[in-house]
């Protein structure tokens, strides 16, 4: 059986597992199987990915590769294309390689605009880590989209962008700091749903009601988002995987395929209330729903 090599930066997370499910189905339709391997994020990650793919694709049993959130560029592209087999990227853009991606800037603009349309003027963005190689395009593009929406609305952004990893503990700590001051925002746009769960948990600990005291919106429609009542920009990772398989195997010819996302309205966003600095405790049902979401997210991390 022919093999498709698939380097990923993380294993066991909802997004990557969903994406691989779609990619595996697309490859299986052609009688191919995936060889999924983890290259942990770090300064040399892309070089390691390029070297391993170059060696694998020189072997006859490998028919191609899909690199997930590794932006191969320049000399790295030359190395992986040298064996003459197709290589497709998921996430971001790269010189000379076909890509399947989200329009992260547009997603961030739409998420931020939703909060603006509700009447929020103090909107913070809890972003990813700028130093993470697998995350840098997501962070930069979503910060840009957020900034464009805020600027178009004439809103200030002083100290409004905070960094966080995608881990629940880190996101909760960052959100605790963000929401603890007297000048806390009335709304938070989180770079992904897993970071949004940290905002929900921080609000619970601080006795803030969501959405009465702070509105929260994320990106992904993670498997626990509905239980948490989280408003989000829904994407379909399995569809991304299927699209990448189709491009790799010659079913499509688009070298820059943008997969759509849509706004899903739930109970975590609402217009800001007058005197929104209050600290009334959230209701019991809201606390239980959010706790379930946090526990489920932690169990799958």
Automatic annotation (TrEMBL):
Task: Provide this UniProt record's keywords sorted from A to Z.
Answer: DNA-binding, Transcription, Transcription regulation
Q: Which InterPro entries match?
A: LacI/GalR-like_sensor (IPR046335), Peripla_BP_I (IPR028082)
Q: Which GO terms describe its molecular function?
A: DNA-binding transcription factor activity; transcription cis-regulatory region binding
Residues making up the signal peptide according to the UniProt record:
none
Q: Domain Transcriptional regulator LacI/GalR-like sensor: where? A: 112-269
- Pfam families hit by this protein: Peripla_BP_3
Keyword check for Lyase, yes or no: no
Record bears the keyword DNA-binding: yes
The source's domain of life comes to: Bacteria
Protein name per UniProt: LacI family transcriptional regulator
Q: Which organism is it from?
A: Amnibacterium setariae
